[in-house]
Amino acid sequence: MSTRDLLTPTEPRTRAGLGVAALTALVVGSMIGSGIFALPSQMAVNAAPGPLLIGWLITGAGMLMLALVFQTLARRKPDVDGGVYGYARAGFGNYIGFTSAFGYWVSAWIGNVAYLVLLFSTVGYFLPGFEGGATVPAIIGASVVLWTVHLLILRGVHTAAFVNVVVTIAKVVPILVFIAIAAVGFQAGLFAADFWGQQTLIDGAPLGDTMTQVRNMMLVTVWVFIGIEGAAIYSRRAATRRAVGAATVFGFVSVLVLLLLVSLLSYGLMAQAELAGVPDPSMAGVLQNEVGYWGAVFISLGLIVSLLGALLAWVLLSVEILRLPALENVMPRALAAENTHGAPANALWLTNLCAQALLLWTLVNESTYLSLILLASSLILLPYLWSAAYQLLLAARGETYKSSNGRTRDLIVGAIAVAYAVWLVYAGGWEYLLTASVFYLAGTPLYLWARRKNRLPFFTAPERVIVVGVALVAAVAVAVMTTGNLTVL
Question: Mind telling me which residue stretches traverse the membrane in this protein (predicted)?
Fold first, then answer.
């Protein structure tokens, strides 16, 4: 790495941009991690087929609006790079842009640790000593995988993106095989036996009325769509802005179809109460019930490949979300420095050192996959809200609209996306908002350092109010933590 490799916002690209295939693989690769492999039992615990269909309809519509937000902004604001970071900064100022980028970055590397824990928990299916993913052998293995990915990305983002395309294809194959076998073995009578869940008992308890079931299953779907913004994060490296929008929508629709088929077809293979009791990864147990032991082995191997692919995709996203703010004086400039292969080396080292430290923490504190992924997901919800609000703001002002053509549509899409993003934040829970404020406050010195180094003003008057608000909420969070009523991990 040398200082001559440091890019500025005005410097032209010297490498071919990422095309639709590579960007779509980033979206699919970041969205398909572990969630889909646990979907059959997680859905069965919460809802019968009827409420499940309603919930998927609402969730699909809400996430489609967010996908359309990223597509529209890529087209109408081609000068804004960085997806959730760039849109938050353009719409609401430097500090909100910083919190969006910093929260997304923390979310990414915490999520990577969650993937590593589950990866070696799955390896424990084959090799004793790795069970649970938080044993000494598991942490050693996870560390080896983490730094192997690190070395791969140091060889260049384009090389890593190509590998991600291959891995994404490989991890989708087991899911398609499951869908094909489930479609052949599907029993319509079993699927429709208690369509609205009025007689089914899960662990002796009823599922509740239709809306209760819909709400409960939607809480699960919050986490399986994280990564929809993957192409937008890489907008600066994209061949065209049209490729960003196309990859976002195509990737979202592809994953939605897979999620729908996996969750719905499972109800035609096993009774719902039985399906709810299948241990994770429940897709493996369902396939074993259908075809025998080899089915569980096949899906477990698919999950391992999927987790490796998701890890690669999210390490790529986490370093990119540091590089762009550094180019625009929102984070320390050193985080934008690239090595001779075009990889943001400093950002990569910082990201993976943090992940390594958290891996060691999980060994001491036995943090579970679920607790890690919930924290990671909560930190990414506000960036979604800022992006949706930015599109709504553009449409309301008429900015970038030379005529009224398309403006009404974008107002409706933006309003629905904002409403859905607010619901996501609400569904995440107040405890995670409190925790997010602590991370934002802890990261603020990086922002101050970058602004001071470049002799730029720290905050505008509205931003001072925001910083004080973040500090007050963080103080409340710390106070609640000291009472034991709030735990981070």
Answer: 20-40, 52-74, 86-106, 136-154, 161-186, 217-234, 246-271, 291-322, 343-363, 369-396, 408-426, 462-481
**Closest to 233 (Cα-Cα) out of 313, 125, 118, 133:** 313
Return d(Cα 170, Cα 150) in angstroms, integer.
Answer: 21
Q: In whole angstroms, what is the distance from residue 117 CA to residue 132 CA?
A: 7
Burial state string for 100-137 with b = 16 or more CB within 10 A and e = fewer than 16: bbbbbbbbbbbbbbbbbbbbbbbbbbeeeebeebbbee
CA-closest candidate to residue 314, choices 489, 118, 107: 107
- CA 441 from chain centre, in angstroms, equals 22
CA atoms of 460 and 451, how far apart (whole Å): 12
The rounded distance, in Å, linking the Cα atoms of 480 and 474 is: 10
Q: Please write the tens of the pLDDT for every residue from 399-432.
A: 888 776 788 889 999 999 999 888 877 766 777 7
pLDDT tier at 469 (50, 70, 90 boundaries)? very high
Q: What distance in Å separates the CA atoms of residue 88 and residue 85, rounded to the nearest whole number?
A: 5
pLDDT in tens, 46-63: 899 999 999 899 888 888
CA distance 41 to 45: 6
Q: What SS3 state is found at 439?
A: helix
Q: Which band of pLDDT confidence, cut at 50, 70 and 90, is reported for residue 83?
A: confident
What's the average model confidence in pLDDT over 295-319?
84
Domains of the chain: 3-428 (1.20.1740.10)
Closest CA to 343 of 370, 320, 369: 320
Which among 403, 352, 405, 372 has a CA at the least distance from the CA of 132?
Answer: 372
Supply the DSSP string of 342-389, one letter for each residue: S--HHHHHHHHHHHHHHHHHHHHH---HHHHHHHHHHHHHHHHHHHHH
Ramachandran category for residue 400: left, alpha or beta (phi over 0 → left; psi -120 to 50 → alpha): left
CA dist., res. 162 & res. 409, Å (int): 36
DSSP 8-state symbol, 335: G
In total, the chain counts a number of residues equal to 489
- pTM of the full structure: 0.82
- Token digits of residue 330: 């929102």
CA distance 122 to 164: 21
Residue with tokens 């993003």: 421
Distance CA 394, CA 372 (A): 35
| Residue corresponding to tokens 């990119």 | 320
* Contact predicate 325/447, CB 8 Å: no
What is the number of other CB atoms lying within 10 angstroms of the CB of residue 272? 26
Buried residues in 454-471 as b, exposed as e (16+ CB within 10 A): eeeeebeeebeebbeebe
Q: Phi and psi of 220, rounded to 5°?
A: -70, -40
